Structure formats: C-alpha cells, structure tokens
Amino acid sequence: MIGRIAIDLREVPDFLLFSQWKAFDSTVNYNVCPHDHVPAIYNDGPHGTRWERFRWGYQPHDVHGGAIPVNVAAERVGVDEFYRGALAERRCAVPIVGWHEWELVPGGTQPYFFTRSDGHLLLLAGVHVQNTFGQLTLAIITEPPRSRLERPSGRVPLLIAEDSLDAWLDPELVERRDIRKAISRVDLSQVTNWKVSKEILMARAGDESLIERVE
Q1: Distance between CA atoms of 51 and 39, rounded to whole angstroms?
Q2: Which of 19, 80, 95, 204 has its CA 20 to 30 A from that of 25?
Q3: H or E stretch including 192?
Q4: Can you tell me the distance from the alpha carbon of 196 to that of 214, in angstroms, rounded to the nearest whole number?
Q5: Is 128 in contact with 39 (CB distance < 8 Å)?
Q6: pLDDT at 126 > cutoff 70
Q7: What is the DSSP letter of 88?
Q8: How far apart are CA 200 and CA 213, in angstroms?
Q9: Nearest-angstrom CA–CA distance, 210 and 3
C-alpha cells in the first residue's frame, strides 16, 4: 500500500512535456502525503493532454462525509458505484520518483522507499473526479504484485509503461477489456527498494534526504 509519494519534476523526459508543464517544472517534494496536492497528467477533452494540480484523495461532488480513499483496487475501480465512470472517462497519471511503504517491526514501524533501478520516473495510474468545491481529486490504482519485489508487499501501484501513457489517457478507450489490452506495465523487476529513516513518519519537510538509504 502506498503511504507517501516522492515527486521531483525539475527534469522530465520529452514525452511528458504536455500543456501547462511549466506551471510544475520546479515541483520537488519527497514527502507527499495523502490529501496533499500533486501534479498529474490527464486528458480534458477540448484541450487534450495536459498537466493539472489534483488533490490526492478521491472525493465525488455528490458524496459527503465518510473516508476519502487515496488508493483504489484495480478490481473495484471498473465496477464499484463509488467510482462510476472513472475508469472509462477519467483516467490520469502521476509521474513520481518513487513511493513509500511501511513495515511493522518489533518496536514500531520501518519505512521503505521504492523506485526504479534505472532512475527513470514512474507513472502511477489513477482515476480522477471533481469534488464539491470544483477541485480535481484522484485516487491511485493498486493491484496485487505480478512479480516478486525484493521484499514482500501486499499491493503495488499500477505502474504504466512509458509507451502506454498515450493509450492510458486516450478518451476513445472506454471499455475495460480494451484498456487492459492497450496498456503494458513496468515490470517489478525494474523496481528496487531500501530502508529509509523513520523521520519521514513525522516530518512535513520534503527534501531529498528523506529517501537516503539507512541500515
């Protein structure tokens, strides 16, 4: 399960240089928490694919009260009434350096950081919706791991391969089976992880030191 995400958009590959990119090109936060704002990419129809600021936490405008989910199981997103129409019509992608997970250990919790071994950005698959206040909100899609990570993990984010981003954001793809056929995932053998300081459990700061390896 994703606990925090790390974002650093000071350098991005050319295939991510969509409209409104310049509004986010200095974004650096290695400690993005649930319900924080995150830059993400989506297709808004008339203006095509573009960057926009989303709130991390899926909150439909006609739902009041209750928990605000930050992650959604891939098995649910296409069938649960709460996410009605999201998979077909409101897909998005969140480019990240990596994500944090926690492991319960004797005496407390040990955080880990997950990232690509080659240093490239990861693309988290998400779905979005507008809330009562007109804000765009999103949830990150998770799934059971399809291959073994270096350490066990109950669920992992759906990681879109770079050459599948256009298909994932294509508004013409609306059927679940067609979407599944059109996209490929980053193989988890390309993802590595390591222990990081427990400071991230308490800190609101978001500098790069929070992902330094500890023993």
Answers
A1: 7
A2: 204
A3: strand 191-195
A4: 5
A5: no
A6: yes
A7: H
A8: 12
A9: 14
* pLDDT range class, residue 62, cuts 50, 70, 90: confident
Q: How is residue 94 written in tokens?
A: 């969140």
Taking alpha carbons only, the member of 151, 154, 147, 137 closest to residue 92 is 137
Q: Does residue 147 carry a pLDDT above 80?
A: no
Q: Could you identify the residue written with the tokens 């990119």? A: 21
Q: Rounded to whole angstroms, how far apart are CA atoms 7 and 3? A: 14
Q: If you write DSSP's letter for every residue of 97-135 in order, what string do you get?
A: SEEEEEEEETTEEEEEEEEETT-PPEEEEEEEEE-TTS-
Is residue 12 exposed (0-12), middle (13-18) or buried (19+ Cβ within 10 Å)? middle
Q: How far is CA 199 from the centre of its chain?
A: 22
CA 131 – CA 93 distance, rounded (Å): 18
In the structure encoding, which two tokens stand for residue 45, read together?
Answer: 């129809």
At residue 172, the pLDDT reads 95
Give the list of residues 6+ apart from residue 83 with CB closer than 8 angstroms, or none.
Answer: 58, 72, 76, 77, 127, 139
Rounded Cα–Cα distance for residues 117 and 96 (Å):
13
